[in-house]
User: What shape does this take?
Amino acid sequence: MPKIVDHEARRMRLVEAVWSLAVRGGLEQVSLRKVAEEAGVSMGQVQHYYSSMQALIRDALDRAVQAVNATIENAVTAADTTSPEAILRACLYALISPAEESTRLMRFALTAVGRAVSDPTMAKVLAPGDDELLALTAGLIAAAREERGSAPRGDQRTDADICWSLATSLGVDIALGYRTPEAAERVLNHHVEQVLR
Assistant: This one.
């Protein structure tokens, strides 16, 4: 009976190795050989799944973004509520989570920022919130204001953009050790209160 190979698990193992290496020494320290060593596999296996270092780095970045998005979705599910305000907070607060994995993903994204300056593909992956996310968040803000009995005001889409920019910035501060998650939560909570007041 032929051995069943889980190709997705193998790719993920290589991506995890990239994340770990990049967080420890920056992207410039990541090579196919080091990824093979970190993952405990042969160079041939790395090259079987990725034709170049650039392809591996891009996949690692795509998967990091997907993992962050999954963290946000999981936070909303865990909140187990239909309250627009609670959902809004769960989404935003997911970016300042004290969880080790969240911090590692944010640190990896930071290592990719320098490369994104000269690589439009990577820059696109790292671009701030897309239209769908901003539209969803603007809708949550409008519904949360209505739920509180606050009068409609301003541009909810701009408010949504600022909320995500602030949450991302605070997540970066946590990843770099500039703030504790608790301090970041106080700042984000203050801003959300201002937005919904």
Remarks:
- The first helix runs from residue 7 to 25.
- The mean pLDDT is 89.
- The two ends are 65 Å apart (CA to CA).
